Amino acid sequence: MNQQDQWTSKLAFILAAAGSAIGLGAIWKFPYVAGTSGGGAFFLLFLLFTFLIGFPLLMAEFVIGRGAQKEAVSAYRKIAPGSAWPWLGRMGVATAFILLSFYSVIGGWIVLYLGKSFSGDFFNHDFSQMFGESISSTWPVLISQFIFMMITIFVVSRGIKNGIEKANQIMMPALFVLFAVLIVRSLTLDNAMEGVKFFLYPDFSKIGGDDILFALGQSFFSLSVGISVMVTYSSYLSKKESLTKSATTIVLLNVLISLLAGLAIFPGVFSLGLEPTEGPGLLFVVLPAVFEQIVFGQFFFIVFLALFLFATLTSAFSMLEIIVASITKGELENRAKWSWIIGILIFVFGVPSTLSYGVWSDFTLFDKIIFDQLDYLVSNILLPLGALFIALFVGYRYPREMLLQEFRAGSSVSVKGFALWLMLIRYVVPVVIIIVFVNMLGLF
């Protein structure tokens, strides 16, 4: 069955795919992982992995999805009928389910902070203490996470054109504008250049084996590759559009927003005497302190939180979409029902992650709370594994002539350009992922 829903334009697809990629990956996770994993050295590794590994993988998911014109599970089944490859799509669906269950926790934190930010005495607090008290509460965080999931479900239930596409056309441009304002202020704070140096000057003495794995995982997380989200998104794309131009634009936007996030956060961290190793709460502790230094800071902070929520939602849309699409198979009449069923199940599954910073904080495994366990499982195991199998599928299972035709459809990319990409997918991407994995396991 052909998909009945499609993006109305190339721009709509790029904004949706960039929104999926940017979200929490670039704005929330990148600064705190960079802060705990070596600063400038981590950023350099992240750039290297993004262009040499992330970009080829993004293209790989694009050619699978648009080539089959079907969601993830059906796409692998169509290209490799009678094989076990559809399980790669199912693995992506399961990963998206787990990822959204703890991703929605941070979405809930943003909703909670957005509500708090309207308080007249919001800036008269110790932000580190406020963050700790906020995420350790029980009902406020559960209700906030529920609200976040209800918004996600509502938009996805409305489909591609009327839901996801319309939301992204407003959310993404506004986010870039406000980031520019925030960076100008951050860079004019006292001692701001120390933060810039920490973020952009690579000191490889601060990098260990785990940090390399984190950089690789971040490149996957921030581009939404490895779970076949982009297989599903690209299945709604016209054959007339250039996949290479779309992928290049998305990668550059992702790198840009990661750079902007670092320039917004780290100057403030060093100016205010805070530690860059703050962890997941970095954004919720540093940004309020930076906005406090700005004229009309509370107003701008409220606007930023709203846009941050929008960016977070765009990523959530893509995660829920891959699951819903895998069940409905493009049948629009069943979309709304399954969006609500799956979305509510994800919320319920995410409750332990929500409470792991509060009443369930004592429940740990390998010294990690539930939230951190799931984050590590997805970012450092499932995403790299999914990416490895996608590379092997495209490099060795996808029929060569079909692959060349899909890669070049709608673009003027030469056969040499295709050959270079195929070489990266066949040899470089799998080898790098395997080496990083072996290094993580301490085998050499």
TrEMBL record:
Its main location: membrane. It is a multi-pass membrane protein. It is found in: Membrane. The chain crosses the membrane at residues 12-30, 42-64, 85-115, 135-157, 169-188, 212-237, 249-274, 294-317, 338-357, 377-398, 418-441. The keyword Chloroplast does not apply. It comes from the Bacteria. The keyword Transmembrane applies. PROSITE patterns: NA_NEUROTRAN_SYMP_1 (PS00610), NA_NEUROTRAN_SYMP_3 (PS50267). Pfam families: SNF. Keywords: Membrane, Symport, Transmembrane, Transmembrane helix, Transport. InterPro entries: Na/ntran_symport, SNS_sf, YocR/YhdH-like. PANTHER family: TRANSPORTER (PTHR42948). Belongs to the sodium:neurotransmitter symporter (SNF) (TC 2.A.22) family. This is Transporter. It comes from Fictibacillus halophilus. The lineage of its organism: Bacteria, Bacillati, Bacillota, Bacilli, Bacillales.
